[in-house]
Design a protein that fits this description.
Radius of gyration: 25 Å
Shape: globular
Order of helices and strands: HEHEHEEEHEHEHEHEEEHHEH
Oligomer: single chain
Structural class: alpha/beta
Number of helices: 10
Number of domains: 2
CATH topology of the largest domain: D-Maltodextrin-Binding Protein, domain 2
CATH class of the largest domain: Alpha Beta
Number of strands: 12
């Protein structure tokens, strides 16, 4: 009898162990991230450079993650309204987003944190700002525009993005390098609003990213006078750089993909892996080239170091504009 009880007890234990190992894979599957849609914040309006670059990135990432990335546009305050929402979200991987000012917004007092106070997943791309004008304006080159502006100091109307945002900094850098003084009209959102002002004939020139102006340029309503940077942009080979035109200025608007600080390792690894696959794919590179953006594709610590470097590039511009705030 005793042997029978031992045998029955052993069989019962084996059954329990079998059930345990059958159930464990199910539990593991249940716990795998992500289990629901992820909120993907873009802190600029639909149609802006950030929006046009962020959406294809989200689409590629969600294919890897197996869950939708739900786009939420939150423009305003040089991109810091949406940035604050990302920073303040629960660090569970279900809120991520694009940032373009996080590496210098603290320097100018817009937010009390910077990229070191967030989880940096990577830097997908960079935007190249351009000088645009309405197609019926008399100047055919940026040199002609500069000569015109010099004769009318403070009268030429220039539309750009909100004060402190990238294209605003590019506009101020252009003024200094070209030796002109314009009536700079900062718009409440991103480059799409700049294009609207220029295309409507409300201003003389605009400073925005190439993606926002692309459709209006192709339609013949806007003229590209020059692009910032040291090299001509693929697909825009006919447009000279400001440096070629004798205006020594270079500003590149970078985008980063960030999440709240304290993201758990599993969530971080999964998001980083999907991001890396997305930005290194031929589809992403082709999309960025078609937009007139630069595919950067830096991940993790490499991206963090690059953001540090870019912040140092912007410090002189911010000081010149009197925007650096004391700690």
């Amino acid at each position: 009898m005793k042997e029978h009880r031992i045998l029955r007890g052993g069989i019962f234990l084996l059954v329990l162990i079998g059930i345990f190992f059958l159930v464990i894979p199910g539990w593991a599957k249940e716990e795998k991230f992500p289990k629901k849609p992820i909120t993907f914040i873009i802190p600029m309006e639909p149609g802006s450079s950030m929006d046009r670059a962020g959406r294809p990135l989200a689409e590629l990432m969600q294919k890897e993650l197996g869950q939708p990335l739900m786009i939420v546009n939150k423009p305003g305050a040089a991109g810091t309204i949406g940035l604050r929402d990302i920073h303040g979200a629960k660090p569970d991987g279900y809120t991520i987003g694009i940032a373009n000012t996080v590496h210098y917004a603290k320097l100018i007092g817009l937010v009390p944190f910077d990229h070191h106070d967030m989880t940096v997943i990577g830097v997908p791309s960079g935007g190249v700002p351009a000088v645009i004008c309405f197609a019926d304006r008399p100047w055919k080159s940026v040199q002609e525009f500069i000569e015109f502006a010099k004769k009318q100091p403070g009268e030429v109307k220039a539309a750009t993005t909100s004060r402190g945002a990238y294209w605003w900094l590019a506009t101020k850098a252009f003024e200094k390098a070209a030796g002109v003084r314009m009536n700079v009209l900062a718009q409440p959102g991103g480059g799409a609003m700049v294009v609207t002002q220029v295309a409507g004939g409300h201003v003389d020139v605009g400073f925005c990213g190439l993606p926002e102006s692309r459709s209006q340029v192709q339609a013949g309503k806007l003229r590209l006078l020059a692009v910032f940077g040291r090299q001509r942009v693929p697909g825009y080979d006919q447009v000279p750089t400001l440096i070629e035109s004798g205006c020594n200025v270079e500003v590149l608007g970078i985008m980063s993909l960030v999440a709240p600080k304290g993201l758990p390792k599993m969530e971080y690894d999964i998001l980083t892996s999907s991001f890396e696959k997305a930005v290194k794919s031929p589809t992403f590179h082709e999309t960025m080239a078609q937009m007139g953006a630069l595919a950067v594709g830096m991940v993790s610590t490499e991206a963090l170091k690059f953001m540090d470097e870019q912040a140092n590039v912007l410090v002189p511009l911010l000081k010149e504009a009197g925007m650096i705030k004391s700690p």
